[in-house]
Write a structure and sequence with these properties.
430 residues; 4 domains; mainly alpha; transmembrane helix; 0% strand; 71% helix; membrane
């Protein structure tokens, strides 16, 4: 059926569809986010469950359960590491008045290298009660101590614990959905292919699209985890050598935040710089200066993440995650707006799956190439003889009667070539 839609109408309908899908994803986030996480985890755990089932002769149910329990154990290790690092950081805060004064003077001395401040400045001046007993403590001391009191820190930990408990039920839901996807994954995949009818060509495209989506997601999550652990090891060792006070916490942070492309990497690089500027003691620092330590950290961090982004990641992930930077950043903005923090972590796998679909759907390949980082791919035209015949027919039609409009009838065996005398389309006025 030819609806004779104008270009503006088609664009409007497409925009309405995009806005409708976005609204549905936003409003149904409590449903869609656990499902998407479960699909991603199932795609990663399926090879492990299959290996346990085939090589160790374990029943399929227990193979899936073992793979899932292994994932839970890995997450508990990560949570345990943060549980160990955060209290250790809090305990390391100054406990006595003299310790607070010494810590403040170290911070003031380090920052004075960047922003010169007079010793008698009322907000951020140097504080030495033995030398200046009549001088009031700088306002910065009381401000920092007010925010870092034991009550404030305890309140923050309580709020964090409540937030974790609120999301605990979602984590349990994700585990159950993942288990059932592992148990029935092959059956569900066969039923999805059956929806598209008996056509062998269409089923082949669907099968290839599903396989490519799964491979892209699995490759990204597995290798991203390995690369993140490598980043944490290398950067954590450098932080420890340079004398950062909380080097272990920043190493864990880079391992987690690097799942968010670009944005997470930048965010993970800021705390070590602040740590170097505020807490590094110049008398014990290997480089002899807090400012020099911060500068070296910024250079080293930039070199490491650049090498990781341009050499390691393309080498280990190949073309399965071949997405250009513009697509990745726009995807992060979009999915963060729709699903919040969870959307940032899911942006890359979702875009990889979307690209795999576009590359297998007839007429959508251009969008798939648009998301990739490779060179531009021109649309394939008909062969030279057919194209020449089509252009000749258009020329003849215009020469014989300028009022005639060339149309293409897909039911006639012309291979797209127009004929002189074809009737006008109803979409154009006489």
């Amino acid at each position: 059926m030819n609806l004779n839609l104008t270009l503006a109408t088609r664009i409007g309908l497409n925009l309405c569809a995009i806005f409708g899908i976005t609204a549905a994803l936003y409003l149904g986030s409590s449903i869609f986010i656990p499902i998407v996480f479960s699909v991603l985890l199932a795609s990663v755990l399926f090879p492990l469950a299959k290996f346990i089932h085939e090589q160790l002769r374990v029943p399929w149910f227990f193979s899936c359960l073992t793979a899932l329990l292994g994932l839970v154990a890995l997450h508990l290790v990560v949570i345990g590491a943060f549980t160990w690092a955060i209290p250790k950081t809090i305990v390391g805060l100054p406990q006595t008045e003299q310790a607070w004064i010494a810590q403040y003077n170290t911070i003031q001395s380090n920052l004075s290298q960047l922003f010169p401040v007079k010793d008698d400045d009322e907000f951020f001046g140097r504080y030495d009660p033995n030398r200046y007993p009549d001088r009031q403590p700088p306002k910065a001391i009381s401000l920092v101590r007010k925010q870092l009191t034991e009550e404030q820190l305890s309140s923050g930990l309580v709020k964090l614990s409540v937030l974790g408990l609120d999301h605990l039920w979602q984590a349990i839901l994700v585990l159950f959905i993942t288990l059932f996807l592992l148990l029935e994954g092959q059956m569900l995949a066969d039923k999805v292919k059956a929806i598209f009818g008996p056509s062998i060509e269409i089923r082949g495209r669907v099968t290839f699209a599903l396989a490519e989506m799964t491979e892209a997601i699995r490759t990204y999550l597995v290798w991203r985890t390995i690369v993140n652990l490598g980043l944490a090891l290398v950067l954590g060792s450098a932080y420890w050598y340079l004398g950062l006070k909380h080097w272990y916490l920043w190493a864990l942070l880079v391992a987690v935040l690097s799942y968010v492309p670009y944005i997470g990497t930048i965010a993970a690089g800021i705390p070590p710089l602040v740590d170097a500027l505020l807490f590094v003691d110049p008398s014990t620092a290997p480089l002899g200066s807090a400012l020099l330590t911060a500068f070296f950290i910024s250079i080293f961090y930039t070199c490491v993440v650049t090498f990781e982004g341009y050499i390691i990641v393309p080498w280990v992930m190949g073309r399965s995650m071949d997405l250009n930077a513009t697509t990745v950043l726009l995807a992060c903005l979009y999915w963060h707006q729709v699903w919040g923090i969870a959307g940032l972590f899911l942006a890359m796998p979702l875009m990889a799956a979307l690209k795999a679909i576009c590359m297998q759907v007839e007429g959508w390949q251009g969008w798939g190439h648009l998301m990739g980082s490779g060179p531009a791919v021109e649309l394939k035209l008909d062969d030279a003889a057919t194209e020449k015949a089509r252009l000749k027919a258009i020329e003849n039609a215009i020469g014989d009667n300028g009022e005639q409009t060339v149309v293409i009838d897909p039911n006639e065996d012309r291979k797209g070539a127009a004929q002189s005398g074809d009737t006008k389309s109803d979409g154009y006025p006489s």
